[in-house]
Amino acid sequence: DAEITQSPRHKITETGRQVTLACHQTWNHNNMFWYRQDLGHGLRLIHYSYGVHDTNKGEVSDGYSVSRSNTEDLPLTLESAASSQTSVYFCASSGGSGRPDTQYFGPGTRLTVL
Amino acid sequence: AQTVTQSQPEMSVQEAETVTLSCTYDTSESDYYLFWYKQPPSRQMILVIRQEAYKQQNATENRFSVNFQKAAKSFSLKISDSQLGDAAMYFCAYTSYTGTASKLTFGTGTRLQVTL
Question: Which one of B103, B105, B110 makes the best mutation probe of the A interface by having the most chain A beta carbons within 10 Å?
């Protein structure tokens, strides 16, 4: 069955370190998204990609970057981790059929920045 | 910009009873989808139900149904015959097609407690 996976599931790091969160999907979806989830804010969009070599900023993109070198993967990098980036991170993908479509989510990564 | 509002931070329902979770949204688009996602303690985001704005008929999925009022921009979720496994955070979400692909806007969530 097609799926979307994230790794690691839990990560503890120190302030100032570079961190990369992996996202891999086997749906063959064109579109991939990264969200962060914080209490009182629901899920907020960090970055998204509509295809290989395409990346776009979401509403909370400062301090994060992504790159898309193939269809299956969209890694999220925190260039210099800050305590404010402690959160749960979700990756999602969708088919992009030319109409509004449904996003499917990975299991999430809990990141703690000390 | 589109916004999604869930005004009920917490709700409680007794097992086997019915509960309705509220959601309102604001948009100037005519073609969009609305979703309810469930997030149990495992953190997994699970799609519960989807409603296409162009469809007048309310979506249903087994014990889950929606009341979609397009003019009022209201999208409530009704859970019938509530079960202990329904206890979770429920998020209302909106997406429209922007010419390339869709981005989701989420509400802040409603925590549903199911009691015996």
Answer: B103
